[in-house]
Amino acid sequence: MTIDKDIKKKKKNTLGQRRKKFSLLVPLASIRLTLLLLSLSMILVFVATLEQVRIGIRGALAEYFESMYGIWHYPEQFWGGELLNSIPIPIPGGYLLGGLLILNLTAAYVTRFQWTGKKMGIQLIHLGIIMLLVGQLATQAMQEESRMQINKGESSNYIERFHGVELAFSDVTNSDTQKVVTIPQEILEKGGTIRTADLPFKVQIKHFGVNCDFTVTPDGSNRGALVQDVNRGVGQTANLTISEKEEDFSSEGLNFGYLIFELFDGTDSLGTWLTLAHPGGNHWWKESPKLSDLAFQPIRHNGKFWGVTLRSEREYLPYSIELLGIENEFYQGTEIPFNFESDIVLNMEGNQSRRALVYMNTPLRHAGKTFYQYQMNAAADYTVFQVIRNPSWLVPYIACVLVSIGLLWQFSFHLVRFLRKNSNSAQPA
Questions:
Q1: 3-state SS assignment for residue 361
Q2: pLDDT of residue 140
Q3: H/E element holding 297?
Q4: Which of 24, 279, 330, 380 has the most crowded Cβ, counting Cβ within 10 A?
């Protein structure tokens, strides 16, 4: 009995020393703080769910979960909405709540728990939950989403961002080689004059937007103010008029980025162009004869032949994927997909290749990227892969294993104690 008391006293002293050593963490380990953060997380999920109707899933994620805080306005259609809608209400974001929850659990882990056989399962469970939160924050911060579209019988070696464009100049003077110079969206947004040794002319950004409405007006009609100075390319020949529009983050949203720029050779103007970026890829402009040149607007300068286009930001890969065949199946009498399947060949570095099938819930993984079956043309002309790069993809799996081991350990520990107690009580006196 005395030994048990000494052990308990020693454990208590050890825990007290640890709390004294990490005294700054003690307030953060409060269970009240945990309950407050969990309550605020429930409010965040509720608000973000309501906002999906207005700004879509992607917009709600960016506004409320991938931020420190978000600004919410009470919906007008709700009771009292006409009065309350004008009042901005700050909502703590996913990064803030997730970061505080990590601190809260870590502080409790350090100041409250001890590594004993009796409590080891609980320790592992808490460690797994901490890793889950850390992994989710890492995913939100580092995960990159792109797409790859491949026509049947062809191959592709680049992926395109869902959001983000670039201005691309292509030197096609030599039919055997092609030099491409790109200007990313971050630079286009800053505006001003762009000079680079890779281009024989200067590029002056006049107007740039991530989304717009556009119309092809009749010849001789008045064009909008933004395009009054356009005197070259499709913007002039098709008599285009555009109006700026906010970016649409909804799943069905189509964002047509636009750019108006002027080229200079020294101080001499070479003309002003208008270019648009199609959200599905600039090859879609070919469906409209008047806008088909938006995929390649020609520029002749100093004996060289250039083409310019505004397109989704690309990342070129050291390997390519060839599409051999496609199968798409729908539930009878509906347009609900039953199975989308792409038969591909992955052409890797070193002239190596391997054949694979990509279909729902069975992606292709290679070189840190995962290719999911995303879309498919009804006529089976092409397929679209969603490409995910997530350096922290292993963290959630490790966290789930730790939680599972912790639960199993805790259950087994109490089960063994229960069986021993019953065995001892069943023995005759």
A1: coil
A2: 78
A3: strand 297-301
A4: 279
DSSP helix/strand/coil, 359: strand
AA letter at 11:
K
Token readout for 273 is 């162009």
Half-sphere exposure of 65 (CA within 13 A, CB side): 20
> Which residue carries 């190596």 as its tokens?
352
Do residues 230 and 236 make contact, with C-beta atoms less than 8 angstroms apart? yes
Q: Where are the domains of the chain?
A: 15-142+394-426, 145-151+319-389, 157-316
What DSSP element (H or E) covers 277?
A: strand 268-277
User: Measured in Å, how far apart are the chain's first and last C-alpha atoms?
Assistant: 22
Q: How far is CA 148 from CA 37, 278, 325, 369, in A?
A: 39, 15, 16, 12
C-alpha 144/C-alpha 162 separation (Å) is 10
Distance between CA 64 and CA 90 in Å, rounded?
10
Question: What is the C-alpha separation between 256 and 274, in angstroms, rounded?
Answer: 13
Q: 3-class SS at 4? A: helix
With cut-offs at 50, 70 and 90, classify the pLDDT of residue 113. confident
Predicted model pTM: 0.73
Average pLDDT of 281-288? 83
CA 284, 285, 289, 290: dihedral to nearest 10 degrees? Answer: 160
Strands 88-92 and 69-73, bridge-based pairing: antiparallel
